[in-house]
Design brief:
By secondary structure, this protein is an all-alpha fold. The chain has 16 helices and no strands. It has helices spanning 2-18, 21-28, 32-45, 59-80, 87-114, 120-129, 155-170, 172-184, 192-229, 238-252, 257-270, 276-306, 315-336, 344-352, 358-370, 377-412. The protein is globular, with a radius of gyration of 21 Å.
């Protein structure tokens, strides 16, 4: 029984601290995930009786927990984005999704084959799971609340928020491709048409359409329900309910739930007949749930580090992780933004702040559930978690200063 109380006390202590961490991180210029990892180290070292990964959870537990956090974060990201943005603003995240992300995938794939000496399916899987930027751990470089203006005050934050919302769904077809190549035994026997028309085009289109349709229907319902029946909607938890409903329904109907959830949030934000205050309430509720789950995830990640998760790969995997975070993503980002007329500082900031995180954990665990005979399974997990750790530390130490620098410049204008 005492162990039960210790678990409650530990979780309560950790989540209580999270209430102050965003403000503390702004003061000390260090992102709060770094502090949470250190807290995880501390709780693990003193023997807090939590369900520490050893050093990993099972694939199914990893998938479910990361899936839950990501879909909640995607709803929050969609609700942050304001309305009536121009194409000149939207083209930045679209270029990052359709040019930068494929470059990252190709570079990681060839490094997997020629540097890490992985098989084709394993190299492709590694490239696919590292492709998306993260809507969870990247919260500090994204929009902080629902924007009301017709043009974003900070195009850097808008770009990074929208990119994370879009590419978490767009990475799914490439994860599917890795699984299909592994099941087929190689490129030569792959049914490429099935992947292209079904996994790439059809599921993406269904996800986007369902997200927009559900968002419009719910928006109309929230707007008209009190007019017809006198029933008013005040509860912020509607955003959480809508997240689960949209994700589950879209997956059942053969679409990508990640895209649908993001577009539901985006569509509700665009539905101007809903009170702006209620949109803010929905966003605030989903944001608090996201931070609560993030606290638990990062603390357990800290414990798994001490429990040996970083020993799953060798020096090549570690070097690959550094190259991916510090060279591949920044260069691919700059290439994607070549045609954008922004100052070079802005392009460098957007390209560098491609934070990797929990979405990658979902994709790799999902792939292993679909096909359990991938070679180098432990190495793939190890490299993925090294990329996440490096991203948390390097971006966590630099992002607050980078964003702060641009905030000061904007305030002087």
């Amino acid at each position: 029984m005492n162990e039960h109380y210790l678990v409650l006390a530990s979780l309560g202590f950790a989540t209580l601290i999270m209430a102050w961490l965003p403000s503390i991180s702004k003061i000390i210029k260090i992102s709060f995930p770094i502090i949470l990892i250190l807290l995880g180290f501390l709780l693990y070292a003193i023997g807090a009786p939590l369900a520490w990964p050893d050093p990993l959870w099972s694939d199914i537990n990893l998938m479910y927990f990361s899936e839950l956090i990501v879909i909640i974060a995607l709803m929050g990201a969609g609700l942050k984005i304001g309305s009536i943005f121009s194409f000149s603003t939207w083209k930045r995240p679209l270029l990052l999704v359709f040019i930068t992300m494929p470059i990252c995938i190709a570079a990681a794939y060839f490094m997997g084959i020629y540097f890490l000496a992985f098989s084709i399916p394993s190299s492709l899987l590694l490239a696919a799971v590292l492709a998306p930027t993260d809507p969870v751990l990247a919260a500090e470089v994204q929009l902080e609340e629902p924007t009301r203006e017709s043009e974003p005050e900070d195009k850097r934050k808008f770009t990074l928020t929208t990119e994370a919302g879009l590419n978490d769904g767009m990475a799914f077809p490439f994860t599917y491709l890795a699984v299909m190549v592994a099941q087929a035994g190689g490129w030569a026997t792959l049914n490429f048409a099935d992947w292209f028309w079904d996994k790439l085009l059809l599921k993406v289109v269904i996800g986007v359409i369902l997200g927009i349709v559900i968002g419009r229907l719910i928006g109309y319902l929230l707007d008209r329900l009190h007019v017809v029946t006198g029933i008013k909607t005040f509860d912020g938890f509607v955003s959480l309910s809508l997240t689960f409903m949209t994700y589950g329904l879209t997956e059942i109907l053969h679409g990508y739930g990640f895209l649908a959830v993001f577009f539901v949030g985006l569509t509700l934000r665009y539905y101007e007949k809903i009170s702006g205050d209620y949109k803010t309430k929905m966003h605030d509720f989903i944001n608090e749930i996201e931070r609560l789950l993030l606290t638990v995830w990062v603390i357990l990640f800290g414990g798994s580090i001490l429990n040996g998760i970083l020993t799953l790969t060798d020096w090549k995997g570690i070097l690959f992780a550094f190259i991916f975070v510090l060279i591949i993503r920044p260069l691919a980002g700059l290439i994607g933004l070549i045609g954008v007329k922004d100052p070079i500082k802005t392009k460098l900031a957007i390209s560098f702040l491609g934070i990797r995180g929990i979405g990658s954990v979902f994709y790799i665990s999902w792939a292993f559930i679909q096909y359990d005979n991938f070679e180098n399974k432990n190495e793939l997990y190890g490299i993925t978690f090294y990329v996440i750790l490096i991203s948390i530390v390097i971006h966590g130490l630099t992002a607050p200063r980078i964003i702060g620098h641009f905030d000061k410049l904007r305030n002087k204008e």
